[in-house]
Amino acid sequence: MDDLSGNQDEDFHLGYGSPCIKAGISYGFDYYDMGCFPAATVGEADWQGRACDFSSIQQGIDAVAALNSRGSVIVMPGSYGQSGGRLVIADRISLIGAGPGLTTINDSVDANSTGAESTISGFTISSAEFGISIGHFSDRNINLTVANNIIRDCAYSGISISGNSSPTLINNTIINNTDCGIRIFDTTSTISPRLRNNIIGGNGLCGIAIDGTVDIDSDYNDVWNNGIQDYCSVSPGSHDLSDNPLFIDPVNHDYHLQYLSPCVDKGDPNSDYSKEPEPNGGRINMGAYGGTAEAETSHRKGDVDGDEDVDLADAIISLQVVSGIQTITPVYKTGDVNGDGRIGLEEAIFVLQKISGLRP
Question: pTM score, two decimals?
């Protein structure tokens, strides 16, 4: 889905904040969306203060599904559903939240028999019976895409997959679920889920578990500190990490990455990083905020001005900071060399040693 700021992924669903929603011609009773795919808004008021179409997510999904067309259901900031509830996703729906730190679903998300060619992105799914259940009790391929979500504190697994389903799970943070982070039940031996750029940690049993013999496509994930094992009946991807991701404040559920996180710039090199703020290292971050405007910037020791080069300008800026002189250019904490989160004399010395050849 896109907000019309770019279409690198060739997905032309209208996204959160799109100026094309309710911007078409009025026929006396409502305004139509621009573009070929309809969008329904959920909540009280949208980003322009207009009344939303529906108050519940299920109402929005059902309304767009009834049009027998691809479409978006765009959910405003807030908390929706209740623990023990169930939200049934439909086919060919892009379910889009305002961001995982803003929009929370407290229901279990059911994609067991519907949800093919659909997308779920931009949510926290929290304290539900299960996070997202895909393909159970169905012979269909529920090729759902789950991207940029936090799935935490569910009674069972964060994501559970079965049947003929081959979902894509990319840039999610799956944390502190009672059972497994991702659990795959092999009932057909034909499914091939794809996992990329996820952080999977603190789950009660396993990080990633397979019950059976499934050939999954899994790489560039950080699978760390899960209860029994990080991997149960499955091997790590060749580029996987098993490191503390260094969240900002996990106690209070802030799963942004710290600037020294090992998950910064460690996602799949083929993933789109263009929406990450500069300096972004030319590579996507792992976790729910990777590939978004909320991604942590790259850390390069001594690069105080954020131009991805360490040179005399960085030393001058560091000395200006020490002297209390106002700098002309922004100062980036990612240039910190000793992990104290500040720019000062040590950074100036480091840069001067580096540009003079005294430091590699």
Answer: 0.84
CA distance readout (Å), 228 to 77, 206, 223: 35, 6, 12
Q: How many Å apart are CA 298 and CA 296, to the nearest integer?
A: 7
Task: Quote the CA–CA distance of 340 and 249 in Å, as a whole number.
Answer: 17
Helices 345-355, 312-323: crossing angle, 10 deg rounding:
160
Q: What is the spatial distance between Cα 265 and Cα 18, in angstroms, rounded to a whole number?
A: 28
CATH number of the domain within which 85 lies: 2.160.20
Q: Are residues 326 and 189 in the same domain?
A: no
Residue 116 carries which side chain, given as an amino acid letter?
A: A
Q: What is the pLDDT of residues 154-209, one digit of tens each?
A: 999 999 998 888 999 999 999 999 999 999 987 555 678 999 999 999 999 999 99
Boundary of a domain, candidates 187, 222, 257: 257
Domain containing residue 121: 77-257
CA-nearest of 134, 123, 52, 131 to 91 is 134
Look at residue 192 and tell me if it is in a domain: yes
Q: Does a structural domain hold residue 114?
A: yes
Query: What is the tally of structural domains in the chain?
Result: 2
The tokens for 93 are 């729906």
What six digits make up the tokens of 271? Answer: 């993933």
Evaluated on CA atoms 272, 278, 280, 284, the torsion sign reads negative
Same domain, 96 and 216: yes
Q: Are residues 248 and 348 in the same domain?
A: no
CA distance 249 to 167: 30
- Do 199 and 347 fall within a single domain? no
